[in-house]
Design brief:
8-stranded mixed sheet, Aminopeptidase, alpha+beta
Length: 400
Amino acid sequence: MEFDVLYLPTDPPIASFVKLESSPPSGEASQTPTTMVTIRGDPSLGLQETVSAVLEGAQTGSRLRVPLGGDAGSGSAELACERIWIALYWCFHFTSNQHIAVPKGKPVPERCVELVLESDDSTACATASTHLERLGLVDIDSREDGTRAYIVFATTFWQTSLELFISRLNPHRYLPVKPLRYTLSNGTIRHPKRPLPPQSKTPFYTRHCISDKVNSIFRLRPVDMSDLDLIHNWMNNPRVAEFWGEQGPIEHQKQFLEKCLASKHSFTAIGSWNDLDDQGRLTGWRDACFFDIYWVKEDHLARYANNVQDWDRGVHLLVGEEWARGRSRAWLDSIIHYMFLADPRTQSLYLEPRFDNDLLIKLLMRHGFYKVKDFAFPHKQAAMMKLDRDCWKGCYQTSA
């Protein structure tokens, strides 16, 4: 898919204008697309950068050439990292559905690119490469001729906090990880002291989702009491009520929401969409989904699960708007990304849908979840679904 506008995961989302130029196929070689990205943001921030990149080869193991620009040698390591990250963002987010020809039954190689930095100042490339390695973004491989190859894996890219690379553009911030301290809940459950939830009314995750069905920005923001009417309407949707059982008068949802907001081991969020028009302009935020994100160690689910780790997370979720039901793969991909990105110590994610919720269970399995077991909660028969971090393949251009 060729596209003209790409929004960066910043607050607010910054529009980038993209031009793709593909060279014609030569023999068995794949096309070599060239993307030119121009970031347009708040003029007061002076965001007039142009990022160029050449992707050589469309399949795994390809090369991504990134010119650092004429000012790379002037000590602007921050600007160099910004250019590199944006080029990788385009590469991994919007070329990930390209076909990888693998003979039947043979192992599928892990998606990665060799990063080739270009500058008239050779020390600038070496400095930038060393900096990226220290930040955990690149792996350095030694070739037989003694030169080095700088490899970036898609899974590494999606698990690395973007604030390390585009801090100038006001990205969502998840660092730092605080030193470990333990506390007790209910006098008996020992667990790490949890970080505070995101600030009220402040979006904490953004992602541009593009597919054959959707071209839209997905955003997560905390819930507050001003969302009561919205939650009341969603919970009284018969489709939602069948699985959540929280239908009833608005006083019932008020008590439900107050309990959620008072929780010390979870927080609730609203997922919203902002569709792009034909000119690539945002048309306005529309609330669509509800998420209850929790730490498993303190949750009642921990009584039924084996080997729950200190930082494992779970989520309860619902899609409240009928128009958003066709976007399930996009929002699920995004909520998974957020939970793994928010804390690098989180090794596993859990969901426990009702055992007969076949649509959700199949959707989860497409994203790498596996069923641990069916088990009996006091209020429902549930399927324990689990996704381990090392089994997650990262975000991709979704087919909604």
